[in-house]
Amino acid sequence: MAKYKFENIGIMIADRGGQIRTEIKRILHQEGFRGIIEADNLDKVKSSVKAGEVDALFFDAAINSGAICDLIRDIRNQKIGPNPFIIAIAMAQDPSREDIMRVINSGCDDLILKPISVGMILKRLFNQITARKKYVVTSSYTGPTRRSSGREQPKNIPEYEVPNPLRAKAVGGPEEAELHSATKEYKELLASQNMERKASLITRVIGDLIPLYGGSTPPEDAEKFLIILKTTCDDLLELLEEAERAVELKLCKSLSSIINSVASRWREPDEKDLKLLPELSRALFACFSVEGDLDAFAKDISATIDKRSVT
After folding, report:
1. Tens of pLDDT along 66-90?
2. What are phi and psi for residue 112, nearest 5 degrees?
3. Contact, 56 vs 125, CB < 8 A?
4. Are strands 56-60 and 10-14 parallel, antiparallel or unpaired?
5. With left for phi above 0 and alpha for psi between -120 and 50, is residue 66 left, alpha or beta?
6. What is each CA distance from 181 to 83, 97, 188, 294, in whole angstroms?
7. How many CB atoms lie within 10 A of CB 300?
8. CB 160: neighbour CB atoms within 10 A?
9. Per the CB 3.0–4.6 Å rule, which of 35, 123, 183, 252 could disulfide with 10?
10. Which pLDDT does position 218 carry in this prediction?
11. pLDDT tens, 162-206?
12. Closest by CA position to 93, among listed 81, 105, 111
C-alpha cells in the first residue's frame, strides 16, 4: 500500500483487549498511519465519532454487549457524527449467527473473525480503499449492500457509490479536496431516500391494515401493523424535523396522531380515523414525488388537514 498516504487519516481501534489494540496499532503505524485513536468502551467511541475524528473504525462487536452495533446504525442514519460514510470494520470472537446478523444489519463494511493477523488487517483495509461496496437505502436499513456480488440488486432499490473518507485521504488530490462537499451532497440524497422509503412503507402497511377491519373482529395482525406504523412514523418525524421539511412534517404529525388514536383502541377504532389513514399516507408519500409548484401543493394539503380538524 506504498502508493497511498495515511498520515492524515483518523483511524480508531475500539476493543476491550489492550493487547489487541496494541497489535493493530503497531500494524497500522508500520504502514504510515499516525492519527490512531484507541478506545475500550462505547463512550469513547461516541465522543470521537461526534467530534469527526474517525474516518475508519475497527471495533469489537461485543463492546457493551453488542450495543456498539446500534451506534454504527445511528452513524449510518445520520444520528451521530458529521459523516455517516466512515469505514466500519467489526471484529468478533466465535460469533453466533445472531451476532453476525446484528453486525451485518448495523451497516458495517466488513467483519473479521478473531484471532486477527497482520495480513488480514491490511487486506481488509486495502479492500475498503479499492472495492468498497455501494450503499443502499430501504425503509429499515442504510449502509453497504448486503447482497453478495453474484446477486443483482432489485431495480427499485438503487445503489450509491458514496464518498469514502479512507480512500479520499489516502489518494489525496481532487478526491480529498471534494470530500466535504461530496459528503454533504450524499448525506442529503440518502436522507431523502430514507424518508421516501419510510413514507412508502407506511402507505403499504396501511393498505394491508385497513382491510382487516372489514369483519366483526380484527385479527391480532392489526395490532402488529399498528406497532410498525408507530415506529416508522416516529422515525420519519425525526428525519423530517432534521431536514426542516415543513410540508411533510405537518402531514406526518397529523398521520402520527391518527395512528396513535387507532392504536389506543385498535379493536374498535373510530371509522373516521380509519378513513383518514390512507388519505394522509398517500398525501405524505406524494410529497416525495410531486412535480411542479410545491407551495401550491402544500396549501392544498394543509387546507385538507385543517378542514378535517386533524392536529
Report:
1. 899 999 999 999 999 999 999 999 9
2. -110, 130
3. yes
4. parallel
5. left
6. 11, 39, 11, 26
7. 10
8. 15
9. 35
10. 79
11. 999 999 999 999 999 999 999 999 999 999 999 999 999 999 999
12. 111
- Reference 10, options 41, 42, 40, 50; nearest CA is 50
| Grid cell listed for 98 | 445472531
| CB atoms closer than 10 angstroms to residue 116 | 17
At position 222, the amino acid (one-letter code) is: A
Mean pLDDT, the chain, rounded, equals 90
What confidence tens digit (pLDDT) does each residue in 22-43 have? 999 999 999 999 999 999 999 9
Q: For residue 139, which of 283, 258, 235 has the smallest C-alpha distance?
A: 235
Smallest CA-to-CA distance from 92 within 65, 64, 61 is with 61
Rounded to whole angstroms, what are the CA distances from 305 to 205, 239, 298, 310?
21, 21, 11, 6
Q: What cell numbers appear for 187 in the block?
A: 448525506
The three cell numbers locating residue 13: 481501534
Sheet (strand 87-92) strand order = 35-39, 10-14, 56-60, 87-92, 110-113
The residue assigned the cell 399516507 is 281
Tens of pLDDT, residues 8-27:
999 999 999 999 999 999 99
Q: Scanning the structure block, which residue is given the C-alpha cell 377504532?
A: 269
Q: Which amino acid is at 263?
A: A
